[in-house]
Amino acid sequence: MASIPRPPDVVTLCFQRNPFTGTRQITSISVIGSASPCRRVLVIGERLSSAVRCLLGHGFELICHTSDVWVFRRNP
By the 8 A CB rule, do 12 and 71 touch? Predict the structure, then answer.
């Protein structure tokens, strides 16, 4: 019996720049599959840079971006 291949993990982060500090803060998160072990830093209101550093450090790659939305994918 053939096994069904596991789809890639996908994380979408929406963000906006805080006008007072200039930092980019997460405003919305979507996860398809798993974001482990980065789930703890994917928090609305937290800095985008922490989430991006974790995702890139754990096998995710940035596959698409606009001025306020970034999409990351990790292949199984």
Answer: yes
Strand partners, 40: none
Q: What is the pLDDT of residues 16-38, one digit of tens each?
A: 999 999 999 999 999 999 999 99
Q: How many helices (H) and strands (E) does the chain have?
A: 1, 4
Nearest residue to 72 via CA among 34, 40, 41, 43: 34
Residues 19, 25, 29, 33, CA torsion sign:
positive
This prediction's pTM: 0.90
| Alpha-carbon dihedral sign for residues 22, 74, 59, 6 | positive
- Measured at the CA of 60, the angle between CA 46 and CA 13, to 5 degrees, comes to 35
3-state DSSP assignment of residue 57: helix
